């Protein structure tokens, strides 16, 4: 998902996707600790995507005030 796609989502949908992404990220970390992933860069990609979503949510929160 790109920045533009994140901005187009509604706040409710963005929160839902963030929750799903966080669960997947934590599961990936657990799986990686048990056996190495084929692509360990996915951990970094997931973490950055979560940060992008949180940043957009915070931006919207500040604009409402």
Kindly describe this structure.
This protein is mainly α. The protein has three helices and no strands. The protein has helices spanning 3-8, 11-34, 41-64. Helix 2 packs antiparallel against helix 3. The termini are far apart.
What topology does this entry show?
Blueprint: H1 3-8, H2 11-34, H3 41-64
Helix pairs in contact: 2-3
Helix residue percentage: over 70%
Specify Rg, calculated over alpha carbons: 14 Å
Mean pLDDT: 94
Inertia-based shape:
elongated
What is the H/E order?
A: HHH
SS content category? mainly alpha
Poorly predicted ranges = none
Characterize the main sheet: none
Counted by DSSP, the helix tally is: 3
Q: Indicate the proportion of strand residues.
A: under 5%
List keywords for this structure.
single chain, 65 residues, mainly alpha
């Amino acid at each position: 998902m790109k920045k533009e796609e994140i901005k187009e989502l509604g706040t409710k949908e963005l929160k839902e996707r963030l929750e799903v992404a966080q669960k997947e990220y934590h599961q990936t970390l657990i799986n990686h600790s048990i056996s190495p992933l084929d692509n360990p860069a996915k951990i970094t990609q997931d973490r950055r995507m979560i940060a992008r979503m949180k940043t957009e949510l915070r931006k919207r929160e500040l604009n409402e005030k």
